[in-house]
Amino acid sequence: MKVPPLPSDRNATGRTFDEQERAYLMQVMDSGTLICTSGTHAKAFEEDLAKVFGAKFALSCSSGSAAVHTAVAAVDPEPGDEIITTPITDMGALTAILYQGAIPIFADVDPVTLNVTPETIRARITPRTKAIIATHLFGNPCDMDGILAIAQQHDLPVIEDAAQALLAKVGDKYTGTIGNIGCFSLQQSKHITTGEGGFILVQKEELRRRMFLFINKAWPYNEPNPDHEFLAPNYRMTDLQGAVGRGQIAKLHDVVAKRQASAARFVEELADIDGLTLPKAAQGSVHAFWKMPLIIDSSKIDGGVDAVSAKLNAMGVMNAPHYVKKPAYQCRIFAERRTFGNSQFPWSYREQQDGTKIVYDDADFPGAIQGLRDVLVLNWNELYTDSHVSALISAVREACR
Fold first, then answer.
1. In the chain, what are the domain boundaries?
2. Residue 185's pLDDT is what?
3. Residue 175's closest CA among 207, 126, 212, 142?
4. Could you give the angle at which helices 92-99 and 64-75 cross, rounded to 10 degrees?
């Protein structure tokens, strides 16, 4: 069989832009003011975000990576401090830690959800732990109750990386509003997009101010006696991005609801395939379905992930076998400590401080190794019709046969 072309988030076939975004963009262009510090749309977008998510404060920024970097800067680690995170994530969420002089400490993941767990986080806590980052992979929330309990025991802040989990929920709270700081991406492939862009949600004023400063080169706009207060970049969003964001945020609930409805049908109709594990949120949580991860048991489905991937490709179904292919600690930046010149900072600094050698060993990450071995990721989109979903169901069934 051959699957007809599917809506794609890479172009207009899978995006929700309409006259609202165009109207807002023209307002910015007509004003001649494209910078957010003087314009109105990025500020209005932040107000919209705070209302939608029920957060006290929302801050826009230039990317999801910038959002995580800003959050890490807000907890202000000392050089050589440790921040616990996941080995299955975008590199931008890890370089943020290194740029602040801290060391990423990877917690293993559940091999089915590919999320960190309270147990794997607990095993990585040391006296130098400064914060925990909980990444809600594919839109499926982590066990936030368990993670928060551990964080409270050790008096550690929790940063949520909800880049893939817009409107996912744990209980009655949206991901990104459960921990101390929530980080989001508006990159091209996300539920809603401004091309590049991101935002941060926070409840406490002291954190809001520090993050606002970090985004703005540590310059306190509109405060008396302003000065550059500490080392910080320019991570501002443009007012053009804010204009697109305003149009997009109004569509977010509909976008996620459509993804959830089509995903529910897909999961239900393929539940009978032996050897295929489909995504499922934990009880009391709600999945946002950024992507559709399939766990394939090679002992039951001949050839495993690679065979299923090849069959789907032949049918015209784009897919990502093994997702990011390898855990982050195997990348050269970590394996060779390629950071600032030949310094190997911050690992080398820590070794000089107290003799601690941080080692990333495959033996410590059986869940990550297994999860990446067995996962195949399908794109998912709010503009999939019943016909699109039917074709995908038939294709996966045939590929797993």
1. 18-251, 252-324+368-400
2. 98
3. 142
4. 30
CATH architecture of 252-324+368-400: Alpha-Beta Complex (3.90)
Q: What is the pTM of this model?
A: 0.97
The CATH code of the domain at 18-251 is 3.40.640.10
Question: Which tens digit of pLDDT belongs to each residue from 156-174?
Answer: 999 999 999 999 999 999 9
Order across the sheet with 319-321: list the strands.
276-277, 291-296, 375-379, 319-321
The tokens describing 209, both together, are 């101010």
